[in-house]
Prior knowledge:
- By secondary structure, this protein is of the alpha+beta class.
- Helices cover about 45% and strands about 15% of the residues.
- Strand 7 and strand 8 form a beta hairpin.
- The longest helix has about 35 residues, at about 220-250.
- It starts with 8 loop residues before the first helix and ends in a 5-residue tail after the last strand.
Amino acid sequence: MTLTPIKGAIRMLNTYNQTERDEIMRRFRNLIDVWHTRKTTTDRWMVRKAFRLAAEAHKDMRRRSGDPYIYHPLEVATIAAGEIGLGRTSIICALLHDVAEDTEFKIADIQMMFDEQIARIIDGLTKLDVLVEGTGFSSIQAENFRKVLLTLSYDVRVILIKLADRLHNMRTLGSMPREKQLKISSETSFLYAPLAYRLGLYAIKSELEDLSLKFTEPDIYDSVRQQLEQVRPAKLKAIDQFLEPMRAALDKLGMKYQASAVEKTVSSIWDRMKTKELPFDEVYDTHVARIIIDCPPSEEKMECWRVYAVLTGIYRPNNDRLRDWISMPKANGYESLHATVMSQTGRWVEVQIRSVRMDDIAEKGYAAYYKYKDTPSSESGLDEWLSKVRELLLSDDNNALDFISNFKLNLFSDEIFVFTPKGKMISLPKGSTSLDFAYNIHTDLGNQCIGAKVNQKLVQLNHELKSGDQVEIITSKVQQPKEEWFSFLVTARAKSRLKEAIRDHRKTFRDNGREKLESIFNELNIESNKKNYSLLMEAEGINGLVDLYYFAATDKITFQKVKNAFRIDKTGKFLRYFPNPFGRSKGLKNEDSDNSSAEKSTPVLLREDVSDLDYTVANCCNPVPGDDVVALVFPNEPISVHRVNCPKAVDLMSQFGNNIVKAKWRQKENVTFLAGIKITGTDSIGFVHRFTDVISNQLGLNIRSMQLESSSGLVEAVVTIYVHNTQNLKDLISKLKEIKEIQKVVRLDRLNS
């Protein structure tokens, strides 16, 4: 391809009508306006050059909404500059992030026109185009996740631009078909929102979560949002009244500050409602008070605690809910003091106390953190977290699905802080064991570990650690690492070091194993070559020759197992015979293609007689007719039907987006589905009779099982019943709530078998 010089934006925009040209230039000017980092003449010229290239490259492309495609890279660049605070290189990469993937321009062309760094970042943003047959990829989405995450090992800006890209896609998701909305929303809640949180981008994380809820559960999103709008004026007024004595006290001390009410997001409120099984009316902390103080960095900590002293001098605190992230910041750089106090109206109020610098980092995360990196109060776990990310990325050799699982488990989980015998603090993911601690200190310490002392008490290798524990590892020189230890480990670092130790141990069996294998192959008249060894490893689920020789040397690969891995055809030759667990890979299309098979598929009609149709109702969420459902199809397996809000379904959709098929209930009134409810109430004579009368006599529903627990005057009943549809469930719950002894009725997702 021959590159020709680009001569001005106006000439480039001739493929658009006048209204579109005006809008494109308006958006470009807005990008320049929100760009607050260094803007030299050279910087502006290079960004303008990237804009012209993007406008030319995408001139014949339209989004599904019908808008010119160039709107998208312009908006991504605007988010990167204005909402994340990135500079020239990132803005250029955001403008060009789809050029190499969707147009005739290649990475090499971009490198020639700009520089190697820009080309490398854009390459990290470019998705895998096709699922190549024979690669063994079980999930192209997981491979894309892996490729994007691997770029963290050299430039975190790739992830930041990718988050800006995902945020704009979520903002414009309304024009996409339902299957795409579910797939993209699931990816977002599965990986991108947690990633934004871990990089300290709270505003982006919150919006991504809200948009994911909006498209996966629109009814719930609209319900919570509408209720939030109704209570907003009263809540804001109450917070303002709560802050009045605080303002007077802080003014008297001569402090510079801002005090205001902050509204929590729809998704965070809904999560609390689900977790605590509360109606919206009982969620007291939909709004919180935030006090931001303006002071020199060297005085921040003292001034924040000074505000806390003023606060607790006016209101009585709940000490169990004090969170000090100033003395010990979160790994993503977040610093703030959270206190909960009793207001004058008899309601608990959460108060967040932070400095201007802390607030900037809380909103813009990584970029703001590095803006303040050289200040006296800049110590944070973000550098340590990024170091752990890079170690995990460079050491993890699992398949993509395992890689993503490890990444989420180790780098998105909550943290605990434990101490060595000499008092050094070590941060580990929540759930880490004493063996994790040993391997995180040193490989040899883990390999020779036989136990540990936690707070001077002897514990086993799988003992789960808690924040504040002091850990001393006990070793023995005769100890050898064991494969069963993998079940004791949580951290990827420990798993990687254990895997390496086991591999080194197994290498010592290479010669003995090779001799035994060659003997078996000769006896079966099979040639001992690399191809046949590969077939045997696939049959036995073995990852490499080191393990193959080890299993042969230890007699875990026997004559019979080798024989079973091959069969004889009519010519007398041995042939491999294995069914492909993933079926054909030909014809699988890029999951973001507008012509994906899921989009064109005929809806699966879910009939009540499950035996007549090859589908199963997932027992992880127990959908019934009337529920918003998604169907997932995998080769050689029945179609699996989940509720769209099922956590397992979200994970599957985020990794196997091409496997989503449309599903609609086709209902008959004489067929029932199993559902469960949990009833909480005050214990009284005849309580069970009253609610079973509603179920059986008034509504005519059959009870399958019932479990009762009574304690201190309260009773909790878990009842499984057969219903026709969700309307049956709604009617039942509504009727049960009319019984005065019943305090709460909730539907259960998972039922006891």
